[in-house]
Structures are given as C-alpha cells and as structure tokens.
Amino acid sequence: MTGAAPRPRRPRRAPKPPSVLLSKAGVTALLGLATLYTLLPLTWLLLSSTKSREDLFGTNGFALGDEVHLADNLSHLFEADGGVYARWLINTVLYAGVGALLAAVFSVAAGYAFDKLSFPGKERLFSLVLVGVMVPGTAMAIPLYLLAAKAGLVNTFWGVFIPGLVFPFGVYLARVFSASYVPDEVLEAARMDGAGEFRTFCRIAFPMIAPGFVTIFLFQFTQIWNSFFLPLVMLSDQDLYPVNLGLYVWYSSALTQGHPEDYLLAVVGSLVAVAPLIAVFLMLQRFWKSGMTAGAVK
After folding, report:
1. Which candidate in 4, 62, 92, 211 could, as Cys together with 242 as Cys, close a disulfide (CB 3.0–4.6 Å)?
2. Which residue in 198, 195, 137, 203 sits closest to 164, CA to CA?
3. Is the separation of the CB atoms in 212 and 108 below 8 Å?
C-alpha cells in the first residue's frame, strides 16, 4: 500500500516591512513635529515680547526688532491700569496654587478610601466619580453659576475657588496610585500596632503616595491656571480676574476699541503667565516622572 503523496509546502511569505510611521525615522519625524508645534508658539511669544509696539506690527513674528524692549515692556505691564496685572497674577496663584493643593489632598484621601476601606455603596460612589471624569468642565460652568447665585457667591473669590477643589480625575488617579504604592500588609501591621485609620493614612499611606500627590497637584494646578470659561461666567469685578481673563480683556480692547497698546500688554502678559507653569514643572519634575509611571508596574 502506497502512502499519499506529500503536499507541496507553501513558500513562506517574507515579513512585511514596518510601516513608515512606525519606523525609527518616522517616529523621530513625528516627535520633531510635536516639538516644533510646542516650541514655535513659545518662540513667537518670547520674540514678540522683546519688541516695541511699532516693531510688533511692522516686523515678522519670528524676527527680532531693532532693539530689545523686554525690560520696558515688563515695566509697562505691571504699571498699566494701576498695576492690575499684579493683582490678576496674585489671584491666579491663589486660585491655582492653594486650590490645587487642597484638591490634591482631598483627591488622595478619597482615592485611598476607595481603594483600602470598605463601606456600603463604595463601587457605586466610585462610578459617580468616573461619570464626573467624563463630564467636561465647560459643561459645568452654567450649573455652577446657578448654584453660586443661590448661595450668593457670584462675583466673589469663592465662586471660582471652591469649584477647583473638586477633581474627579484626581480621585481616580489616587485610587490607582494607592493600589500600586500602598501594600495591604503594611496597613494591617499599623492597625495591629494600634494606629487608627486617620493616623495610618497620614503617617504611612500618604508618604507612599507622595509621587501620585505631586502628579495630581500638577494636573489640577495646570487646569485651574488655564481656566477661562468659569471665571468669565462667574466674575464681573476686574480685581477678581485671573490672568487668562484679564489678558482676554486687554486683547478684546485692542481689537474692538482701537487700543493697540493693549495688544502688546496681552502678549507680554502671556509670556509672564507661562513662566510660573514652567517653573512649577521644573521644580517638581522628578516627582512628576515617577508618578506618571507608577501604574506601569505593580
């Protein structure tokens, strides 16, 4: 009995070459474009802030003027309208700095509770937190205004400050950080030694979640610092404006009321407003890097 003839082997197909976008050159090119997209506006802002009003409108945006007027522009910025820009800057530091700090504390405490503590309805409450993450902040501005109107907080410092204390995405991140950084065995040992829940959180869990705390602080600090629509809806007193809203007033004045000097103020003020963000990120860089990779390995 003869066996069946062996089937001819199909030739193996050569592996497909990687996509151009996924190649090393493609990835490098994409990163280069992203870098240019980030640096070009900052470069324009820096160069424009060194020009006089005549050079600002009479030269190319990426060209230097005849002389460097940065010192004069900064002096004029902080003297314009009775020094109101310094007031706007202080307001923004209070809104963003103090607000983000308290929001990070509340978020870490809530995330730790959702991760390590057991209480009725925990997962349903956490589902509501996730719903809050998906709702954009601009959609909440009008409801917040109506609530503030009933509470008498419209056109007050608290009308902008209090909403910044709520950060659902920070609560979600804090739960992830707590699950990654805080071992259950350490908490059990602390409880066996007689430590209460509050002391366990403050003395043991919170130092372990420090990178996550800094990451949450940076996210909320940036979000409040760049907030525009809520202050626009909530405030009418210029002394309570944050920097973004004040710069918008100057920019609108330059376009609609024929005050070209206000355009230069808006440009120089934007440069000054960016500086604190860069400084905060550089100071907290090492915490931020470790915090961003915390969820990668458990």
Report:
1. 92
2. 137
3. yes
